[in-house]
Each structure stands twice: as C-alpha cells, then as structure tokens.
Amino acid sequence: MMNFADRDGFIWLDGALVPWREAELHVLTHALHMGGAIFEGIRAYDRDVFLSGAHYDRFARSAEILGFALPWTKTELMKATEAVLWANELQDCYIRPLAWRGAESVSVAAPDARIHVAIAAWDWPTPASQGKGTTGLRMRLADWRRPTPETAPTASKCSGLYMIGTLARHAIAGDGYDDALMLDAQGNVAETTATNIVLLSGDTLISPKPDCFLDSITKHHVFGLARRLGLKVEEATVSLDLLAAADEVFVTGTSVEVLPVVELSMSERVMRWPVGEVTGKLMAMFEASTRRRACPYAA
After folding, report:
1. Per CATH, which fold does 129-290 belong to?
2. Distance (Å, rounded) from C-alpha 15 to C-alpha 23?
3. pLDDT of 187-229, one tens digit each?
4. Please, where in the chain does CATH 3.20.10.10 lie?
5. Residue 199 — φ and ψ, nearest 5°?
6. CA nearest neighbour of 104 among 152, 76, 68
C-alpha cells in the first residue's frame, strides 16, 4: 500500500512549495472534524493541465457553497499547479487541489477559521492503461443512496460527501467488483462512487441529471466529442430499466477518463453490456484530445 505521507517531492501549501513530508496540519483542524474541505481532481498530459480553468472555476464554486472564499485567485492557483508539476518533474500525472478550514475552531460553526489551500500531484496511471479499457468494469448496486440537494451541498466537491462512496466501495471489497452504482433518493440511477455514468441508447448518449451529485467536467468534454460523431446527448432521469436496455454503458471522470461498464450485479438480476464500438471511439478520441493544447469542451 502506498503511504501518501511518506514520499519524495514537493506540495504547494498556502503559497509556497514545501517538502512533501512537511506538508502537515494539526489534529484539531476543523475540516478533519466537520468534513468541510473541498477538492478537485485534475490530470496533466505532457505537463499540460487538462481543462484547468473549468476545474478551478468549480473549485471556487465548491468553496462558495460551503461558505468560504479561496484566498488565492484562479490564475494564481493555475500557476501554482504548473509550479508543482515543475518541482516534481511530472509530465503525465494526477493533480489534487484541496482547501479547508483550519484549527482556529473545533465548533460546528467556524466563520473565522483560516482557509488553507494545498496542491499535490503524483503519477497515477489510468485504469485504461492497466487493461480496464478492454475488459470493462464490473459493478454492484450500492446499499447507500445519494442525498437530495435539500439535505447536503451536492453541487460541491465536498470531502464530507465522499464518505458515502467510501462506505459503498468498502462493501464490495474482495468480491471482484470494480465499483458500486449508487441510486438517488427516488431509486433512479445517480452515479458511481466517484464517476458519472453514461448510457448509449440508439444514437443518443444519456446521463442522469446531476441534481444530487457532482456534475462531471470530463463528461461534458466527452459529450462534445460525441457530437463530433453525430450522436445526440442529453441529461435525463435514468431508471434501472432504462439502464438495463442500453446498448452500451460507460463511466467518465478525471480519474478514469472513459471506461466501459460490462456488468451491474443486483440482488434480483444481473445486467450486462458489451465493450461497444461507440465507447471505444470515445476512448480513442478522448486520448487524442488530451494531447492537444487548449482543448476546451468540444463543440
């Protein structure tokens, strides 16, 4: 198991590059107790930070939803990210910006707590590079469901919300599954523990409406690529029956890029799909798009 606290390299912390092992926080940090941190997941390809502006826009929106402002501008954070890649001599890598309330209060309310920001990056191979692009993912239906937007800040990439995914992922550990599929409060398809799910029905890509989970920046990029193939795209309510009838299914997000789903196991039935032609084309197009500079959401 990799110990992320014991590595060589540098992390950008509150305005300075510090040695990796010295990027620490106090045990009474507010976010550790109350879950009020926000983060982003970004990838760089050939040292070009992919969709950086969109990710840092969402980073700031997440902070605003949680009731604090970032002490650094979008431009400053983008430049800090480039410094992290340079300091760690990284070309292709995963990037994790993180912001949190400090140790000035351990009460539920901490309006005057200092806001800290860190940016780390490391080599994290994609699942496709490890063979999942051809074999596809096997999933099991999670017992936990995504909360409604009236009960949690679901539009933010808030660390506290990921505990649900952790519980769902731990429940399938050791059973041979790659991930868990989560439903919303009404029993419709929401997302996996950390990625958006998309299905192909005829000539249309359909993903669940992101009304109780984080809307994927990567998904919108993939939708743009799909339009180049002449496909239609839409966000809609996705029932389990609609998912079962799909021609192809895949997941998308920064960590996985684009990956086919071949199975969903439920207590009463098992759904299966092929590693389809359209998914394969989108995987190839996505990889090509990451190697071109200044590639926004494709129109």
Report:
1. D-amino Acid Aminotransferase; Chain A, domain 2 (3.20.10)
2. 12
3. 999 999 999 999 999 999 999 999 999 999 999 999 999 999 9
4. 129-290
5. -120, 150
6. 68
